[in-house]
């Protein structure tokens, strides 16, 4: 079955540590996205990529980095520069045709310990 | 002003009633509109999308779009306890920003027996 796989489901980060969240899709979608969700809030865009080897900053890119070396993969690194990384991270993908709706992964819950 | 704003919740309705969820957006160039349902601790799932002014019905769900007034709504008829969730409104500008969705903060819906 086609879908998006995020791993790990839960992740714990120590202060000053970089961590990488994995996102893999087998839907042959061109575009991929990373969102952050804080408790009781909507989704805020971190980074997105519409084509391999290209990506754009979203609204809250500071302290995060991404790469898009393969169409299927869009990993997100949460760096030590991100001072408040505890959140629910969602990866999504979409194709070029309407309705442009996203397919979401199951999410990664990151906690700073 | 928030780009996408949803009616403040939480919203509580009795089983069998109609639940009405509203969303306004600021970008007049927005072209595609989506409603996602998110259960606690889970990722959002697409339940409705609409592009054209008017109503679109799918089972117990009806999406309504009024571009002149820049609002989109979701009606849930015959509400069931299983409809209890957070509902997210999302808007896409289209064009070169195709696919990139801006989300509202979400409205929590509780359907009580």
Can you count the beta strands of chain A?
Answer: 11
Query: N-to-C terminal Cα separation of chain B, in Å?
Result: 37 Å
Overall average pLDDT of chain A: 91
Structural class category of chain A:
mainly beta
Task: Please outline the major beta sheet of chain B.
Answer: 6 strands, mixed
Record field, number of beta strands of chain B:
11
Biggest chain pair interface: A-B, 23 and 22 residues
β-sheet strand percentage of chain B:
over 45%
Q: Biggest sheet of chain A, in brief?
A: 7 strands, mixed
Radius of gyration of chain A: 13 Å
Helical segment count of chain B: 0
The mean pLDDT of chain B is: 91
* Helix share bin of chain B: under 10%
Which regions of chain B are unreliable across 5 or more consecutive residues at pLDDT < 50? none
- The outline of chain B comes out as globular
Give the end-to-end Cα distance of chain A, rounded to a whole number of Å.
36 Å
Q: Which characteristics define this entry?
A:
heterodimer; A: mainly beta; seven-stranded mixed sheet; 11 strands; B: 113 residues; mainly beta; six-stranded mixed sheet; five-stranded antiparallel sheet; 0% helix; globular
What order do the helices and strands come in, and which of them pair?
The complex is a heterodimer of chains A (113) and B (113).
Chain A: E1 4-7, E2 10-13, E3 19-25, E4 31-37, E5 43-51, E6 54-57, E7 64-66, E8 76-78, E9 87-94, E10 103-104, E11 108-112
Parallel strand pairs in A: 2-11
Antiparallel strand pairs in A: 1-3, 3-8, 4-5, 4-9, 5-6, 7-8, 9-10, 9-11
Chain B: E1 4-6, E2 11-14, E3 19-25, E4 32-38, E5 45-50, E6 54-58, E7 61-66, E8 71-76, E9 85-92, E10 101-103, E11 107-112
Parallel strand pairs in B: 2-11
Antiparallel strand pairs in B: 1-3, 3-8, 4-5, 4-9, 6-7, 7-8, 9-10, 9-11
Structure in words:
The complex is a heterodimer of chains A (113) and B (113). In chain A, 0% of the residues lie in helices and 50% in strands. Chain A is mostly beta strands and 113 residues long. In chain A, strands 2, 4, 5, 6, 9, 10 and 11 form a 7-stranded mixed sheet that branches. A 4-stranded antiparallel sheet of chain A has the order 1-3-8-7, with no helix packed on it. The radius of gyration of chain A is 13 Å and the shape is globular. The termini of chain A are far apart. In chain B, strands 2, 4, 5, 9, 10 and 11 form a 6-stranded mixed sheet that branches.
